[in-house]
Design a protein that fits this description.
The chain has 2 helices and 8 strands.
């Protein structure tokens, strides 16, 4: 009887050792088997450029008025292939107040004047696309000048400043309206006048 118990015990020991070796081998195979995949992520950007056609104007006499051709549009630059849809805003000013008041002419219908005196493009500007004209010309009204100028102003700059902000909410990736996007970017409510 002792012999049968030893044989049963021995067989149980061998079976247990076999299960242990098989289990360790499987566990080792599980722990050492791997596969790798390279994931490449590209960071998006919204780089915008001012495109303008600005022929040389003639000098303006003191107190004179003139309309100066200046076609200005803004492009969402996609030259690197990583551009994202964005919204743009722009402002115009010139280098001297001695010119008088000015009026932007030929602005596209998708531009609106905000309460902060920036003009906002209300459509999403897709990568590689260009806005409607921000302006086609500037009309200068020299009769509003309060100085006694006796010589013409030959050099002055008509400056256009623009900014852009991504169209998708960075937190939720949902498309925003132009007011939502700029309000988020500036941390204040932005509305049209």
């Amino acid at each position: 009887m002792v012999k049968k118990k030893r044989i049963a015990l021995l067989l149980s020991g061998f079976l247990l050792a076999g299960v242990a070796v098989t289990g360790v081998g499987s566990a080792m195979a599980y722990l050492t088997d791997y596969n790798s995949v390279v994931n490449t992520f590209k960071e998006g950007n919204n780089t915008t450029n001012i495109d303008e056609n600005f022929p040389s104007p003639t000098p303006i006499p003191p107190g004179g008025s003139q309309t100066i051709a200046k076609l200005v549009q803004i492009t969402n630059d996609n030259s690197d292939g990583n551009s994202v849809p964005c919204y743009v805003r722009a402002k115009v000013f010139y280098s001297t107040s001695d010119m008088g008041n000015y009026t932007i002419q030929g602005m596209g219908s998708k531009w609106v004047l905000g309460t902060d005196d920036y003009y906002y493009y209300t459509d999403v500007l897709e990568p590689g696309k260009t806005t409607e004209p921000f302006m086609k010309s500037v009309k200068i009204d020299g009769s509003t000048v309060e100085t006694n100028l006796t010589t013409e102003i030959k050099n002055f700059d008509i400056n256009v400043y623009e900014e852009s902000y991504q169209a998708k909410d960075p937190d939720t990736q949902e498309l925003m309206t132009w007011q939502q996007a700029w309000s988020k970017a500036l941390n204040k409510t932005v509305t049209a006048k």
